[in-house]
Amino acid sequence: MRGSGDLAIINISECLTPKGSTARCGASMADIETIPDAVILIRNGLIAYAGPASGISAASFAGMPILDSGGRPAIPGFVDSHTHFIFAGYRAEEFYWRAGGIPYMEIHKRGGGIRRSVDATRAASLEELVALGKKRLSAMTASGITTVEGKSGYGLDLGTELRQLEAMRALGDDPSVAVDIVPTFLGPHSTPPEFAGNPSAYIDYVIATVLPEVRARKAAVFCDIFCEKNVFELEDSRRYLEAARSLGFRLKLHADEIERIGGAGLAAEMAATSADHLLKASMEDLEAMARAGVIATCLPLTAFTLREPYADARGMIDAGLALALASDLNPGSCFSQSIPLIFALGVLYMKLLPEEILTALTLNGAAALGLAGKTGSIEAGKQGDIVLLDAPSWKHLAYNVGANPVSCVVKNGIPVWGS
What we know:
The structure is a single chain. Helices cover about 35% and strands about 20% of the residues. It has helices at about 90-100, 105-110, 115-125, 125-140, 160-175, 200-215, 235-245, 265-270, 285-290, 300-305, 315-320, 340-350, 355-360, 365, 395-400; strands at about 5-15, 35-45, 45-50, 65-70, 75, 80, 145-150, 180-185, 220-225, 225, 250-255, 275, 295-300, 325, 385-390, 405-410, 415-419. The strands form three sheets. Strands 6, 7, 8, 9, 10, 11, 12, 13 and 14 form a nine-stranded parallel beta sheet that branches.
């Protein structure tokens, strides 16, 4: 989104937001500022005032475009800090195979799994990937997402990985796209057929050939790896992350999703920005993450889709971690970007307070992308990324299970969806 604007949002029933320029940890995640009868002023795309209507005169926004909220509540735009939204091809049949109890390896034998997405994405042109990504970003905007992280990882070769990242750059430069995009290189998502049975050799290839090219093109901010048993284990993950860090990339990990192998501990050791999934992470490693300032990103839609136990988000917060929540939108294990469903699952199955979920999907999601100083909360100096809800209370995000109450989205001071 290239534009920014001036806007006065008036007659807000209540404005709710976490506050700060860093992640909120532990019990402080529930600290939400509530401003009844609020006004938000945005000048040149940045918030100039967010407070009670009684604290500002109408003369302060004379001549500005006005958005009358009509008594709707306002919250920050959502930050989806873990997605795989650039891909070609779909895997709907696998959803039903899994639902019928067919195990992963059998799905793999049937030609399913990540290999199917790799084949389809390798065959797609840049223009096709951009068109697919734009459609998904439009759906994100309608659900109140104003910032998103996108991962490569469906190419597993130099050309396709770069093409995925180039698609994200093209979308980020498109003035009609209303979502900020943070690109992540996830070349070590799986071992490609060219390196079948030899993940270490593939990591050698990525370090020697792919990472330098990604860096030379400034195509990604973060590097990520699927650190998992029989995929990329600790030593291969460590040397990849060390190589990425030496080139100036910030670090993320898919960690301890399927088996506990110490990925969360490696994230702490490497001072990664975030470690994601964490369904099987040990409390010892989670406590190490808290000490190292690593954000724990949980992905409840994936656990829901795979019918797996949810990550111990309550235990993470109680251990002093900063928790983020994200969608994990991808064609295989989670073809969903439903923010309201994340809210409901967080309350019903992860023992989270709604205030903690709001923080996890806004300020802490921004922190997981290194953007907490710019977005993720409604306070002076931050981007004017605002969501108005067609509901009597923001808590309808969980209560009205699965329904989307978003009625208006403002990005950088410009209304971009709804009214």
